[in-house]
């Protein structure tokens, strides 16, 4: 099986590397030469997007948002028209469910099946191959290509028709954002009340408040290490898609709207490229109190 992979950023690069390590015949394309070279080091082969569209049995993309996916697939030099019946397109980008359906409809005219398969887990899980995939599309197509997801992740769940994967991802991003904000708020309360937030973390992580999110993001807040695994700006993109979908479907999202405003505040103050655990900085701006001893506040 020949796989084409387009988009070798923070997430796409380790995902492609894991496919190469597993022995798949892998063609890759990206705007950054060093990203391509990183995958080549593990057995991948560079190719231009047109060649990938013509030659790959499975075309995969990992791109920032709906406009980029639509441009690559449906733009003036889009790849959809270059693909042929029997191929499969798997989009791992986190985009609008409506955009996924639009691309799927164009590919269906060529006899090409599509799965929308966004991921959760961030860069660390992309590197160690333990991502969680949320997949939309025909169930039989999902089952046929599930071995690819198993190489890159520890979980792959079929969620329904095309678009269901990205709808599930939006729900995931809403829950993650609200959880991170709650962790930052709770830790800030503890510190301002004179209790070490590290002690609070250790005390509550085994109880009902414990979560994968707190275990991943709480230590980052406490250490002051806000290097991006998943950037504030990318989470803003996801919450924007969630709010748009909620408005279209009449779903109330008041907590999402509140956290979106917090993230937009951080973006406006130059923190958009930090990890989303930087939500703690919103509270630092309000209180002048840092959770990190490194910052000495």
Q: Any low-confidence stretches, pLDDT <50, length ≥5? A: none
Summarize the biggest pleated sheet: 6 strands, parallel
Tally the helices: what do you get?
Answer: 13
Helical percentage: 40-55%
Task: Please state how the strands of the largest beta sheet are arranged side by side.
Answer: 3-2-1-4-5-6
What is the beta-strand fraction?
Answer: 5-15%
Oligomer: single chain
Cα gyration radius (Å): 20 Å
Helix-strand makeup class:
alpha/beta
Task: Write down the secondary-structure element order.
Answer: EHEHEHEHEHEEHEHEHHHHHH
The average pLDDT is 96
| Number of DSSP-assigned strands | 9
First-last Cα distance: 55 Å
User: Judging from the principal axes of the Cα atoms, what is the shape?
Assistant: globular
Spell out the blueprint of helices and strands:
Elements: E1 2-6, H1 12-21, E2 25-29, H2 33-40, E3 45-46, H3 49-55, E4 58-61, H4 66-74, E5 88-91, H5 97-108, E6 113-116, E7 119-120, H6 122-128, E8 131-136, H7 139-152, E9 153-160, H8 164-192, H9 197-204, H10 212-223, H11 232-249, H12 254-268, H13 280-287
Parallel strand pairs: 1-2, 1-4, 2-3, 4-5, 5-6, 8-9
Antiparallel strand pairs: 7-8
How is this structure best described in words?
The chain has a six-stranded parallel beta sheet with strand order 3-2-1-4-5-6, with helices on both faces. The chain has a three-stranded mixed beta sheet with strand order 7-8-9. The relative contact order is 0.10. Helix 1 links the parallel strand 1 and strand 2 (25-29). By secondary structure, the protein is of the alpha/beta class. It is built from 13 helices and nine strands. It has helices at residues 12-21, 33-40, 49-55, 66-74, 97-108, 122-128, 139-152, 164-192, 197-204, 212-223, 232-249, 254-268, 280-287, and strands at residues 2-6, 25-29, 45-46, 58-61, 88-91, 113-116, 119-120, 131-136, 153-160.
